[in-house]
Amino acid sequence: xxxxxxxxxxxxxxxxxxxxxxxxxxxxxxxxxxxxxxxxxxxxxxxxxxxxxxxxxxxxxxxxxxxxxxxxxxxxxxxxxxxxxxxxxxxxxxxxxxxxxxxxxxxxxxxxxxxxxxxxxxxxxxxxxxxxxxxxxxxxxxxxxxxxxxxxxxxxxxxxxxxxxxxxxxxxxxxxxxxxxxxxxxxxxxxxxxxxxxxxxxxxxxxxxxxxxxxxxxxxxxxxxxxxxxxxxxxxxxxxxxxxxxxxxxxxxxxxxxxxxxxxxxxxxxxxxxxxxxxxxxxxxxxxxxxxxxxxxxxxxxxxxxxxxxxxxxxxxxxxxxxxxxxxxxxxxxxxxxxxxxxxxxxxxxxxxxxxxxxxxxxxxxxxxxxxxxxxxxxxxxxxxxxxxxxxxxxxxxxxxxxxxxxxxxxxxxxxxxxxxxxx
Length: 424
Ligand SMILES: [Zn+2]
Hints:
By secondary structure, this protein is α/β, with parallel strands linked by helices. The chain has helices spanning 2-13, 124-128, 165-181, 200-209, 244-254, 256-260, 273-299, 335-342, 344-364, 371-377, 389-395, 400-406, and strands at 21-29, 33-40, 47-51, 56-61, 65-66, 78-86, 89-96, 101-107, 116-122, 142-148, 186-190, 214-219, 231-236, 304-312, 324-328, 380-382, 419-421. Helix content is 32%, strand content 25%. Zinc ion is lined by residues 149-150, 156, 165, 219, 221, 253.
């Protein structure tokens, strides 16, 4: 009798606990959070808790084992990682530099990785401190949010020689920011500044939080044929894609959140659907104008794919009120494009044209209270036959340098029909 009871207790406690081997660890740090990802051999039970003095996060995994050395390179949040493996219980401890809030979840395998345990560490106070005040400064700069696609756990597409899209687009985004910041009246805001993942929604929310006037997402995707090459500009389509290629690209892009490690949450929308649709219609019109301007500018110096303009249902472009576009700077799957995207001279040429296109759009459609709006409202001069820059400058009582600065001209040449803005 006693023996039978014992057996039943044994059976009760050995209700299958899911156990796994920990095969590796990656750490990605962004400005607001740090993500530690543990690769697991299979789905596993785990328990996670936080402790103080010193601040640390403890992860217990029953019946699990470690199959690797866990190490953390110099990191702003995690001081070091320790572990012990006693009586079949694996304990991993993340020693932190300061107290942080932790969030954890398991991820199922995708194309790139297998089962994973994700631990997100963040300082939530920071999020609360977010500025709410709208910028109402007069003559402010227009703000252009530049979003380098992918990052961290999501490499994006991979080129024939092993180039990661996430690395190439971060460099291009940085170059574009430089080009934009060099122009009067324009200011760049980088959405991603390092190698970490940001979910689609957070990307455009960051742009909104900073009162961005335009959102530009930078990509360099792959196609199933390595012959396909050239750049393209895309805007959102709620109805359907403008081409099969556009549809295919959007479907690939939209998978990023699951590769980057985002758990699909319930859809709490920041605005009701009706409001959302209304404001998005206005933003769509502006998106179209801005994208066409950038497209026209790029066309002058960069090889485009087909017409180089398309529409598809890209999640990252779904900001309700910030005009948005996505630029495929080339197909990283094409050897020629891959080489170009890594070539600083090509990147310079490309980003110069993109920033010119953006600038042109803002002069056509300036947001109120901006420095550009003040210029665009001012006098203009259409260049006539026989005009020279010095002649125009003296006629309007200004200097060549001032005209060149406003019109972002690098030399003194003018052409008939060119519209020149004149300093107020
Ligand atoms: Zn991409």
